[in-house]
Amino acid sequence: MAHMIRKDDLCDVTLVANGVMARAHRLVLASCSPYFRAMFTGPPGFEERRLETVKLQGLEGEALLLLIDYIYSGQIHIDEDNVQLILPAAGMLQLTTVRDACCDFLHRQLHPSNCLGIRRFADLHGCAELVAVADGFIEQNFVEVVQHEEFLTLTAAQVAQLIHSDKLSVQGEEQVYEAVMFWVRFAPPTRQRALGELMQHVRLPLLPQEFLVNRVEADLRASHDCKDLLIEAMKYHLLRDEEKTLFENTMPRAKPRQPRGKPKILMVVGGQAPKAIRSVEGFDFKKDRWVSLPDLPSRRCRAGVAVLNGQVFAVGGFNGSLRVRTVDLYDPQRDQWTQAPQLEARRSTLGVAVLNNVIYAVGGFDGATGLNTAECFDPRVSEWRDIAPMSIRRSSVGVGVLGGLLYAVGGYDGASRQCLSSVEIYDPKTDEWRPCADMISKRSGAGVGVLNGCLYAVGGHDGPVVRKSVECFCPFETEAGIGTTSINGGASSSSPGVISGSVAGPSGFAPHGSSSTVTGVWRAVPDMMLARRNAGVVAHEGRLYVVGGDDGTSNLASVEVYDPAKNEWTMLNSFMQQGRSYTGVAIVDSPF
User: Fold this and answer.
1) How far is residue 46's CA from residue 105's CA, in Å, rounded to a whole number?
2) pTM of this structure
3) Which of 131, 246, 268, 322 has its Cβ near the most Cβ atoms within 10 Å?
4) Does the pLDDT at position 201 exceed 70?
5) Neighbours of 12 (CB within 10 A)
6) CA distances from 283 to 289, 300, 470, 529, 533 (A)
7) Which of 490, 483, 517, 519 lies closest to 67 in space, CA to CA?
8) Could you tell me if 20 and 64 are in contact, meaning their C-beta atoms sit under 8 angstroms apart?
9) CA-CA distance, 65 to 441, in Å (whole number)?
10) What average pLDDT does the chain have?
């Protein structure tokens, strides 16, 4: 079909948008777009039905060309430069696949510096799901969001709407108050008049009494509209505890905010230090310190760790004498470990991840040979079962989940005695493994984590060489299109469209039943500060944490943090209580 439009073969309509013309076939357009279907099959009085040239109002010419090309070729390139053109146009033409892909792209771009603008854009174009995602991101990252220029451009009504939320993630109401005053001081002559309205949404009674006296009273003294609010806050501090509880139930401004979810901790499970250990510790993000957690029931290193339904599974590993099948389960609510069903096979240096509410245990070493086998645990039946084996044995393998698929990254093949750069992908729908693009470097014992729709392979080793290099794989990226989204689908596509691994595409010409394909390239990320292998890797609030590991000589107690917005690594200020390699890590609700 694409070659026919290029040659103008049998084209029977010319579309015009903002002076830009595009030739097309009515049948193809109607098959792929409900908008065009209604236009070309409407009642006889609908003039566009018979016109040879149709003018499309409210559509940019560049967007028209991109979307016509998508309908015929099944591909479209979405990036920061064109997403604001494509999304409204796709919405108008009812190309749901493209519109959803634009929303997915913007979701991945969310950052404290741009989330308010993305939220406003999504609201303008009726993208309710993206609005909800942006709202959650803004609430979770409120303290960082208000430090950026977008916050200062908000209207008073928009600031009021933001700080009214019960879900703001703040350590204290002082942070909300300071944000409001920061906004006011940006343009004092006009914004001072909004103080009364805004302070209605600041929970002044929750501010420390000293802060009220020393800061707030001085700031608000001249505002008549704030006088009663300040008196109310002062009176609150004179109440007895039981009176404060009653006050909270009747006065919204005295009710503590309830951020989304409980506070999280970075949990570090067992490891090698230098022998297998039982100890578990956690990093409290809010208090910026390490805390001790209940020990494992038995020594365990080289295990896989995963979180399922809020509980932590420590799967397989090595107890200092044997490779084990046992699985330990930690419940943060009870703050205790219990036994879970055992694996089918003994596995250490395995990879573990959760996909579709199922735990997968991949590869590893059973004490005699490297494994290409894999198995999964379904909590509904509470048992492990074998799945299709990989094409090659992989011990010290990294595993991650992206786009509904399971990635097995690198590792060591004992048969060939080679560290691996190869990657395999498992599709649970077909119970099949297939190859993916090779990494840039061979990596055994690499840490693997997923952040912002990309898979990161961190450190590892190739023989005696311990790496500090890092690389990442983003599906559908190309050498020329870093940070973009590509969609396959459309009128002439030989398979349904693929967006981040899920099957989609416009109705009409795309045949059904074909399996999705994943394309992409590995690209280098800045090196870590230290060379590490056998480290734990986990993502939290837009950053990647690399925990412990060893440098080939000694176990490491340090944690490095990668911020993709700054494209740089920093070292966490505080170290673990002891150096650990072959440890498992997870982000869980704080038990405290």
Assistant:
1) 36
2) 0.56
3) 268
4) yes
5) 12
6) 6, 20, 24, 20, 21
7) 490
8) yes
9) 40
10) 87
CATH of 264-476+518-589, one of 2.120.10.80, 3.40.1010.20, 2.40.50.140, 3.40.50.150: 2.120.10.80
- Total Cβ atoms within 10 A of residue 489: 28
Q: Is the pLDDT of residue 461 over 80?
A: yes
**pLDDT tens digits, residue range 368-406?**
999 999 999 999 899 999 999 999 999 999 999 988 899
Residue range 128-254 in CATH 3.40.50.2300 = no
- Where do you find CATH 2.120.10.80 in the chain? 264-476+518-589
Name the pLDDT band for 452 (thresholds 50, 70, 90): confident
What is the model's pLDDT at position 325? Answer: 98
**For residue 421, what are the contacts with CB-CB under 8 A and spacing of at least 6?**
410, 438, 439, 440, 441, 442, 443
Angle CA(449)–CA(122)–CA(102) in degrees, nearest 5?
55
Q: How confident is the model at residue 497 (pLDDT cuts 50, 70, 90)?
A: very low
Name the pLDDT band for 516 (thresholds 50, 70, 90). very low
In order, the DSSP letters of 108-133 are HH--TTTHHHHHHHHHHTT-HHHHHH
Check whether 245 has a pLDDT greater than 80.
no
Q: Which candidate, 316, 390, 381, places its Cα nearest to that of 350?
A: 316
Tokens of 499: 């967006």
Distance, CA of 368 to CA of 393 (rounded, Å): 12
| Backbone torsions φ then ψ of 559, nearest 5 degrees | -130, 125
Report the alpha-carbon distance of residue 173 to residue 104 in Å, rounded. 33
Rank 36-40, 157-161, 256-260 by mean pLDDT and report only the highest. 157-161
| Cβ-Cβ contacts under 8 Å for 375 (sequence gap 6 or more) | 343, 344, 345, 360, 361, 384, 385, 386, 387
At 347, list the tokens: 């596995």
**Side chain identity, residue 511:** P
Q: Rounded CA gap, 133 and 88, in Å? A: 19
- Cβ atoms of 585 and 269 closer than 8 Å: yes
Three-class SS state of 158: helix
What 116-125 contacts at long range (C-beta under 8 Å, 24+ apart), as own/partner pairs, is 116/145, 116/150, 116/151, 116/154, 117/150, 121/84, 121/87, 125/87, 125/88, 125/91
Read off the tokens for 412: 């060591």
Residue 15 contacts by C-beta under 8 Å, 6 or more apart in sequence? 21, 22, 23, 24, 53, 54, 56, 64, 68
